[in-house]
C-alpha cells in the first residue's frame, strides 16, 4: 500500500467525505476529526421550517493507526440547532436506523475502496439495531 493511499490529506478526505452525501458538517471538521449528522425524521412538519425539530443521528469520525473510528449518537435536533441525546419515538426510529445504516455502509465502503482504510465503531458508540 502506498503512503498516499494510506494517509490521505485532510482536504482529500473532506472532498471524499462530502461526496458520500449531505451529512458532513465541514465547518465543524478539523484535521483528524470529521463531524457528520442526519436529520432523518421531522418531528412536526406542519410547523414552518425554522420551527421544526428532527429525530436523527450525529457522528464524530476520528483517525486511528489503521483507519477511522466512528462514534455515533442518536437524538433530537432542537430549535436552538443543537443535538440532544435521547431515544426517538417508535414512529421515527426505523427511519433513523435506516439512514444511519445506509450511511455507515457507504462510509466504510468508500474508505476501503479509495484509501484502503478500515472503519470501526467507538466503544461508546450508540447501537442502532
Automatic annotation (TrEMBL):
Subcellular localization, as worded in the UniProt entry: Cytoplasm
GO biological-process terms attached to the record: positive regulation of DNA-templated transcription
Region (Essential for activity): 100-123
Entries under Pfam families matching the protein: Crl
Keywords noted in UniProt: Activator, Cytoplasm, Transcription, Transcription regulation
Main location class: cytoplasm
Spans through the membrane: none
GO cellular component: cytoplasm
Function: Binds to the sigma-S subunit of RNA polymerase, activating expression of sigma-S-regulated genes. Stimulates RNA polymerase holoenzyme formation and may bind to several other sigma factors, such as sigma-70 and sigma-32.
Family designation: Belongs to the Crl family.
Protein name, UniProt field: Sigma factor-binding protein Crl
Phylogenetic classification of the source organism: Bacteria, Pseudomonadati, Pseudomonadota, Gammaproteobacteria, Vibrionales
Amino acid at each position: 500500500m502506498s503512503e498516499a493511499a494510506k494517509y490521505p490529506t485532510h482536504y482529500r478526505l473532506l472532498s471524499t467525505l462530502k461526496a458520500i452525501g449531505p451529512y458532513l458538517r465541514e465547518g465543524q471538521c478539523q484535521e483528524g476529526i470529521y463531524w457528520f449528522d442526519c436529520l432523518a425524521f421531522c418531528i412536526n412538519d406542519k410547523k414552518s421550517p425554522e420551527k421544526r425539530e428532527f429525530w436523527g443521528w450525529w457522528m464524530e469520525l476520528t483517525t486511528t493507526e489503521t483507519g477511522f473510528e466512528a462514534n455515533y449518537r442518536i437524538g433530537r435536533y432542537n430549535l436552538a440547532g443543537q443535538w440532544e441525546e435521547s431515544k426517538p419515538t417508535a414512529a421515527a426510529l426505523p427511519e433513523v436506523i435506516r439512514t444511519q445504516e445506509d450511511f455507515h455502509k457507504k462510509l466504510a465502503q468508500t474508505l476501503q475502496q479509495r484509501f484502503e482504510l478500515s472503519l470501526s465503531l467507538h466503544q461508546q458508540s450508540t447501537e442502532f439495531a
